């Protein structure tokens, strides 16, 4: 007696049916997946590359997920795995040290701050910069946990299912990630000993 | 102050607001509330992350391209821009006074060696110094003194640098790309204009470790 799965394997859909199904199933999630890709990579060009690569992979693996009622966890797992692979490849090819190079900034770059621009704006820009740097300081595996759990609101249980990882591992990873992020983000920028202090003056 | 009241107040602080005196005092003595406060601040930072894009027709193109295998390959992975900015630290210093603002070229007047090589084991940190000046100054003097494990990018082996620059009344932002080697060390930034001199010392460490 044939099992349904083997029966299904015999009845292959036509290419056009497959394409139509692929697009219909993926399209409702496509923007959310791009968003996740952006949070993982931190910029539009890399997010678009990652999303494109994801779609291609999902089409190749359509047989693996098209029967699922909710394929989103499958999509997210593929996305985070692709991101981690890419990150490792870059580390392997270029070496960890090159990851620290900062080609975007020329020495003494001094953004012109309009004197009318509110201090809040300067601070907000600095915060944005700081946030990117904090996220970039995380390993790819850790960043996907932060993105899925802290930024996109998936419970740890859901992340465990998406990433096929034990809950305990995720909990300890999360703890380390938070510590690292706090170390960078919550540095007190105005500590007494970091301020400009008057050390001498002709009036003194 | 009770913890429940402290946490209720902390929940309403945004990233610009500092806790009031009573609350600050409570935080100094209560690890539970301090941890609550830090978690909340972290959450606010993460919520402030803005997603940009994609281009309007990107999704359609990407969905169609995916079905065209194997003729159309995804764009080859290049060096992600996010990686380039890794491990960069911003130290934002707010002061009542000065430091540089010369968008064109606030470089030292003396010719300096330029060395843009990046030996192994070092990281560049972006140190930003925000100065609020009470008036325009045409001839402010900025000096840097770098500990042995710090290098100003492009000025390898220069331990001290001094240059003159203009300051505008209001906000002036100076960005210093500092390479931090091994354990790091102290960066001293001093400024002099009119009859005033100010100094700030930043202890830079390699945040990868
Ligand atoms: Zn308390």
Automatic annotation (TrEMBL), chain A:
Keywords: Sigma factor, Transcription, Transcription regulation. Residues 27-91 form the RNA polymerase sigma-70 region domain. This is RNA polymerase sigma-70 factor, ECF subfamily. Belongs to the sigma-70 factor family. ECF subfamily. Signal peptide: none annotated. It comes from Marinospirillum celere. One of its GO terms (biological process) is DNA-templated transcription initiation. Residues 131-181 form the RNA polymerase sigma factor 70 region 4 type domain. PANTHER family: RNA POLYMERASE ECF-TYPE SIGMA FACTO, RNA POLYMERASE SIGMA FACTOR RFAY-RELATED. GO terms for molecular function: DNA binding; sigma factor activity.
From TrEMBL, chain B:
The keyword Membrane applies. It comes from the Bacteria. Keywords: Membrane, Transmembrane, Transmembrane helix. The chain crosses the membrane at residues 77-99. This is Uncharacterized protein.
């Amino acid at each position: 007696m044939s099992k349904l799965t083997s029966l299904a394997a015999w009845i292959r859909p036509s290419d056009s049916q497959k394409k139509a199904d692929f697009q219909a199933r993926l399209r409702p999630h496509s923007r959310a997946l791009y968003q996740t890709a952006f949070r993982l990579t931190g910029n539009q060009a890399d997010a678009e590359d990652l999303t494109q690569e994801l779609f291609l992979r999902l089409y190749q693996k359509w047989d693996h997920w098209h029967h699922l009622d909710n394929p989103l966890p499958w999509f997210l797992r593929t996305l985070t795995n692709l991101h981690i692979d890419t990150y490792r490849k870059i580390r392997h090819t270029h070496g960890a040290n090159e990851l620290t190079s900062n080609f975007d900034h020329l020495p003494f770059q001094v953004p012109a701050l309009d004197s009318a621009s509110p201090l809040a704006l300067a601070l907000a820009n600095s915060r944005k910069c700081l946030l990117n740097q904090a996220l970039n300081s995380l390993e790819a595996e850790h960043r996907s946990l932060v993105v899925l759990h802290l930024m996109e609101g998936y419970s740890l249980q859901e992340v465990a299912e998406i990433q096929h990882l034990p809950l305990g591992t995720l909990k300890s990873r999360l703890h380390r990630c938070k510590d690292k992020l706090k170390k960078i983000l919550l540095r007190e920028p105005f500590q007494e000993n970091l301020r400009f202090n008057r050390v001498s003056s002709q009036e003194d | 102050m009770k913890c429940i009241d402290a946490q209720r107040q902390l929940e309403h602080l945004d990233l610009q607001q500092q806790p009031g005196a009573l609350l600050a005092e409570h935080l100094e003595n209560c690890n539970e509330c301090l941890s609550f406060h830090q978690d909340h601040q972290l959450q606010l930072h993460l919520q402030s992350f803005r997603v940009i894009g994609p281009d309007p027709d990107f999704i359609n193109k990407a969905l169609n391209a995916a079905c065209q295998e194997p003729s159309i390959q995804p764009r080859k992975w290049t060096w992600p821009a996010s990686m380039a900015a890794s491990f960069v630290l911003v130290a934002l210093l707010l002061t009542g006074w000065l430091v540089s603002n010369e968008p064109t070229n606030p470089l030292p007047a003396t010719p300096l060696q330029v060395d843009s090589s990046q030996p192994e084991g070092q990281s560049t940190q972006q140190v930003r110094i925000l100065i609020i000046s009470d008036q325009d100054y045409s001839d402010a003097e900025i000096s840097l003194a770098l500990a042995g494990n710090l290098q100003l990018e492009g000025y390898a082996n220069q331990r001290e640098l001094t240059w003159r620059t203009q300051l505008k009344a209001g906000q002036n932002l100076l960005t210093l790309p500092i390479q931090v080697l091994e354990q790091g060390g102290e960066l001293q930034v001093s400024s002099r204009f009119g009859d005033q001199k100010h100094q700030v010392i930043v202890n830079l460490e390699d945040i990868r470790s």
